[in-house]
Structure formats: structure tokens, C-alpha cells
Amino acid sequence: MQKRALVVGLGIAGMSAAIGLRRAGWTPVIVERAAERRTGGYFIFMFPEGVQAAADLGIADHLHTRNPEWRPGGNSWSVDHRGRRKPALGLLDAPSGLAAVLRGDIEAALWQGITGNATEDAVEVRFATTPVDITEGAGGVRVLLEDAGTGKQYREDFDLVVGADGMRSSVRRMVFGPDEDYLANWKAMICAFQMKEQVPSYEASHSIIVSRPKRAMWVFGLADHAPCAWLTYRTDDIPDRFAGPSIEQVRAAFSGMDDDPVVRHVLDSLEQAPDHVFDSIHQVKMPRWSTGRVVLVGDAAWCMNTYSAMGSSSSLRGGAALGEHPDDLAAALDAWETGLRPYITSQRRSARIKQQRFVPSSRPVQVLVSSVLELVRRVVHRRLAAEFTAAAAAAPSGATR
Ligand SMILES: Cc1cc2nc3c(=O)[nH]c(=O)nc-3n(C[C@H](O)[C@H](O)[C@H](O)COP(=O)(O)OP(=O)(O)OC[C@H]3O[C@@H](n4cnc5c(N)ncnc54)[C@H](O)[C@@H]3O)c2cc1C
User: Fold this and answer.
1) pLDDT at 95
2) Fewer CB within 10 Å, N side or C side of the chain?
């Protein structure tokens, strides 16, 4: 008989894990707290590891990417405190193989993956359902599930429970211990949303960076979609940041910068956005991601946070790898963690450095980071411009890029 796995959470990690497990011969069942799919979302960089994992999961053909085409002069601008713009090194300029997507693009591709095809059955998904209690016995895990719609609770047995329920995972709390044991507070906030339209006088594909000590605003231009905004700031008083409406919190954090037209446009766009993410920034650090028949994946296990820009790539990779050793569960989870942990550790460490690029901690750091990036930009843009000219010369006459 096929072994059954309960996957808690219909996010990128949960769907990746379900597909990985199904490929290895398991029968996964996903329970999701929300009443329906979360299809929208913010801008995401996918690293080559994530793109490879999407291919391993068989969903690469469904994944829509939105990288703007590079043009001489570049697509990215930084705006200084006097409102002057100058060319900047955008993350998509560097030859790093990054893919620009919306969270909803990955979600949609994974959804196609879990709804099945000619050779694989659809994964069962139960919305508005959460685990209330998890008890491991000799031969399996007994989970008390609650249906939020009816209020009904029922018990069900599984051979494995996968906690893919995000940074504030309830599976982690129930099985491994309280959040305080694993969540490191980065004393910073994030707000992200899709803008209705680009900042006036910039092209839709342009990215714009307004970076000041301790607060920064990034607009990510896309090829075939309105840009996404990503705002972040450092703060010591995280609990206070959740008091009152989040839009007021964000406006207060950027007060004094809003005489700049870019900042004003982005803040006004936040008011018009149908939804937005507003949250404190943390990392999750655990000495081990599994115990017995319960394993955590994605942000629940190793949230590296938004500055790392590796959360979705690592979730895809971690989920895909979960199904690689189907037979002996203990050995399988050991091998999975041994294979994955060095990669996660190095990415987690690099997030502190990346944070300085996204939001410098002080004026001297800002000056240092922008000077280094300007040097790199000149080299990268020179190379890309030469490639662009060579490609244009090689194109059949009359063809346009
Ligand atoms: C603003 C922002 C920008 C980001 N940018 C990038 C980027 O550029 N590159 C990148 O790779 N990553 C980025 N990330 C991170 C990335 O989005 C996540 O790491 C990735 O989506 C993996 O999330 P997850 O599936 O582990 O958790 P989540 O996306 O949090 O999903 C968890 C799911 O579990 C459900 N759930 C929670 N509790 C329960 C429960 N008790 N019972 C049932 N279901 C439950 C939730 O409703 C949710 O559907 C960014 C994140 C943010 C917030």
C-alpha cells in the first residue's frame, strides 16, 4: 500500500514537497489554512537552483518568467537625495541567470504540477483545514485536523507529516517548540505589492532604487506586467510596527523622503493596491529539520528572509529533493538534510551582506556599497553593451530586437 504524507501549507514549499513525494511513490494530502489558493503576490528573483528544481519537479514548462530585455544604458536607475537619477546595477543586469517572476507565477506552475497529468494523479488539497494536534506513535503519525468551515475536528493517520506552513509554522510550534527558540529578529520590516502603473517618466521595464541609510524603496520593472514595489526599513521597535494600519506605518517610516516624486508615487500606489505584504523580517535557524516522522521544509525550517532572495528557490529545491529516498524514512530524511544543509547555511549567511545592498545600515556603508556597485556596473554594462551590438550586427537586416 502507498504511504501517505500530510503536507501542511499550500505555498511554494508545500506544493514542491507534494510533487517531490508523489514522484517517489507517496500519496500526499495537502491541507491549507486559507479558504482558497493565494494566486497574486510580490516580485521574486529565482536563482538558477530554483529554475533547475522547477525542471526536476516537471513544472518548468508552466513557469512564466518576466525578465525585461537589456538595452544599452541599462534598465535600472538609482535616485539620490536631490532627486537626480543615474544608471544603477540592477540585479537582473548581472550575468547571474536570475529569473524575474511574480510569486503567483511559481504558484500557478506548481498548481499545474499538483493537479496531475496523464501519468500522475492529482494531489488531494483540503482548504480551510489546519492541524490542531500531532502525535507520533510506533507506526505513524496521528493528526487531529480541523475544518474551519464546519468547525468539525477529525483524526487521521499518516506515515509522514511535512510542515510547510511558513515562517511562523504551527507544525514547528507543536512538534519542535516555541517560535522564540528558532526565530531570529532582524529588526527590520518589509512591505511589498504590485503597482498599478510605473512611476511617471520611467519605462515600464525600468527598475528604480531609492536607498537611504536604514530605509529603501525598490521598484522592479518587468517585461509584461506593471512593476512591483518592495519597501524595507530597519527599526528597533518591531511590536509597535504592527499597531495600527500598515499603510500609516509605512508612510511614517518614509516621512521626510516623500518630497521625492518616486517615493510619493510608490506610497500613493500602496494606498491603491488591492493587497500588500507587510511583515517583520526574521530568519529561522534550527539544528535539525526533522524528528521521527515529522519534517519541516521552506520558510518553516530555514527561512533565510527576503534579503537573501533565495526563499522560493530553496523551497523548490528542498521539496524536489524530499522524494529522493523513498524506502527507509529515517535514512531518507538524514540524506535529504545532509545534502541540503550546506547550501542553506551558506545562503543564510550571505543574507546579511545582501541586506546592506538592499538597505544600508549607515551612511558610510551606503557610500561604500554604491561605490563598489558603480565599479561593477561599468564593467557589466560595457560587456552587455558589446554583446548587444554584436547581436544586433548578426541579426538579419530588417530584424529588430
Ligand atoms: C516581500 C517578499 C519578497 C520575497 N522575495 C523573494 C525573492 O526575491 N526570491 C525568493 O526566492 N524568495 C523571496 N521571498 C521568499 C519566498 O516568497 C518564500 O521563501 C517562499 O515563498 C517559500 O514560502 P513557504 O512555502 O515556505 O511559506 P509560505 O509562502 O508562507 O506558505 C505557507 C502556507 O502555509 C499556510 N499555512 C500557514 N499556517 C497553516 C496552518 N496552521 N495550517 C494549514 N496551512 C497553513 C499559509 O496559508 C500558506 O499558504 C520573498 C518573500 C517576501 C515576503
Assistant:
1) 67
2) N
